[in-house]
Amino acid sequence: MRLYVDSNVLISLIKNELNGGFRPLYHYSENFFCLCRERNIIVVISGLFLKEVKSKLSLTEKEILDYLESICCIKYELAFPTAKIAEENKELKAIGVHYPDSLHAAYALETNCEYLVTWNKKDFEPLENLIRVISPDEVRNHIP
User: Fold this and answer.
1) Structure confidence by residue, pLDDT tens digits, 42-89
2) Across the chain, which distance is largest between two alpha carbons, in Å?
3) What b/e readout covers 5-14, taking b as 16+ CB neighbours within 10 angstroms?
4) Which CATH number does the domain housing residue 50 bear?
5) Beta strands per DSSP E along 51-131
6) What separation in angstroms does the CA of 38 have from each of 23, 35, 61, 93?
7) Taking a C-beta distance cutoff of 8 angstroms, is the pair 77, 111 a contact?
8) 79 burial via Cβ count (<10 Å: 0-12, 13-18, 19+)
9) Do the domain assignments include residue 144?
10) Range of the domain at 15
C-alpha cells in the first residue's frame, strides 16, 4: 500500500500540535507513522513536502529524511517533479484545488497512492472522485 502524506502530518508531530478543540494532532500523527511502520506501508513524499517542512521547522532536507528513517522508522519514497505532474497540477487547480494542495494531490495521483493523508481534508474536497483523502486519525479505519 502507498499513501501520499501532506507535510502538515509531520509538522504536527514534531511541533506537538493541538487543534482548536485541543485534540492532540501530534498524537494521531505519531500513531499514523507507527501504523505505517507496522504494516510496511510506503509513505510517498515530495520535494514540496520537504520544502514546507523546512520552512515551518527550520530543518534541512537531510534532517527531515533522517527523522522519517530513524525516528519514525518508515519506508518512504521521494517523488520527483515531472511534466505529467505539472499538467495534473494545472488540471486540479482548474477544478478548484488551490496551490500548493493541487501539487500535493498531483503527486499523490501520479505516484498511484491509494490515499492522500492530511489534516486539511476540506482543502481537497474537489478531489472526492479522484482520490480518497483521509486524516491521520482515520487511517486505521481505512487500512486492512
Assistant:
1) 999 999 999 999 999 999 999 999 999 998 889 999 999 999 999 999
2) 41
3) bbbbbbbbbb
4) 3.40.50.1010
5) 75-79, 115-117
6) 24, 5, 25, 35
7) yes
8) buried
9) no
10) 2-139
- Residue 12 corresponds to which cell in the numbers above? 504536527
Contact 9, 44 (CB under 8 A): no
Cell numbers found for residue 98: 488551490
Rg (CA), the chain: 14
Quote the CA–CA distance of 132 and 123 in Å, as a whole number: 13
Cell numbers of 132, please? 480518497
pTM comes to: 0.95
Cα 51-126-97 angle, rounded to 5 deg: 35
Domains in the chain, number: 1
